[in-house]
Amino acid sequence: MQKAIRQENRYIPRLRPMGIYFYIFLIITFLFENPSFTQSSNNTITGQELSDKKLNDTGFEMLKMKRYNEAEKLFMLAIIKNPTVGYYYNNLSVVYMNQYRYDKAYNNLLTAISIDPDNIKALSNMAITCFQMYRFVEAYRYYIKAQRTDKEYTEKRFEKSKVIEKIEKIMIKKPDNKKIKLILNYLKTR
């Protein structure tokens, strides 16, 4: 369980030392890749005038419209403004998952889970990300943790027919992977 400090009648989780380094890396990477965000213009959102919640909400709207680059920038700005909210890291990881950048999604999900170990969406996304990275044992562990956290959500999210369909798509990419074949056969006979 993460320790928390009391501030303004709310609990803010302490970031692990590795989380702090990741946060600093995130800021530096973001500023180097997006120099226009440090300059103010009429056409650019600087993030200075928007709250972290508004940045997250706008990023979520961009995500729905499949405007992944804009969503990524907005989620990063929300994280820079408030690095203690696990859902911002989860949302950023969803952008990376949609772009098939599972290594970046994995790192953001680790941070989201370290902030809130019971974040059901982060646990579910981590199970999917680990599976896509062929880390099957780790994927299963996160799936079980998600199921223990919220069984109803997990059953809905991991509906058997949809899971089989997704695994069959992965089989097309990796037809010789014996572990995927075993998992697929297990699910079909279960």
If you average the pLDDT, what whole number results? 81
Classify the secondary structure makeup into a structural class: mainly alpha
Low-confidence stretches: 1-18, 35-47
Helical fraction equals 55-70%
Number of helices: 10
Radius of gyration: 18 Å
> What general form does the structure show?
globular
Arrangement of strands in the largest sheet:
1-2
Summarize this entry quickly.
This protein is mainly alpha-helical and 190 residues long. The chain contains ten helices and two strands; from the N terminus they run E-E-H-H-H-H-H-H-H-H-H-H.
Describe this structure in words.
The protein has 190 residues and is mainly α. The chain has helices spanning 17-33, 52-64, 68-81, 86-98, 102-115, 120-132, 136-149, 151-157, 160-173, 178-189; strands at residues 4-7, 10-13. It has a two-stranded antiparallel ribbon with strand order 1-2. The longest helix is centred in the first third of the chain and has 17 residues, at 17-33. Residues 1-18 and 35-47 have low confidence and may be disordered.
